[in-house]
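seq as requested:
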Amino acid sequence: MRYKPMVDYKYNGFLLLFIVWWILPCTGQNVIGNPSIINYSKKAYKGGNQNWDIDQDERGIMYFANNNGLLTFDGVYWQTYRLPNGIALRSVMVSKNRNIYVGGQGQIGYFKPDEQGRLVYHSLNSLLSPEDNSFTDVWNICEKDNAVFSESTPRFLY
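struct tokens:
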């Protein structure tokens, strides 16, 4: 009697095909067309631990609402612009008129460049009625038809 191995070649072929089919996509990814991602540490941008909101102007400058204030990044250099009393920012929005509106803990206003091009903060809290001036964090700012709206706890400000 002749010995016949109990190997099912058809089964082994399918198993090998499945393994190759499963491993082949893991060989690498094409990086052409994928954006480069650079992670910056808080040491690099000299800001707080948390960035809450981001916007970008038409020149490509990035604006970050950070726990230490407004951070700007032009692709090379970081700048930090602090608010009065070191208030943490929660939202940022670059408007059509190029003002940089920001909102934070009980504070709403905008940054505008001075004669030297350095951003200067202008608070809008004094324009609010006493009952509207009792808000906590401003979480969102948007613009519609040249009007600026902000979402805060517990109300919307216009």
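The helical segments are 9-23, 42-45.
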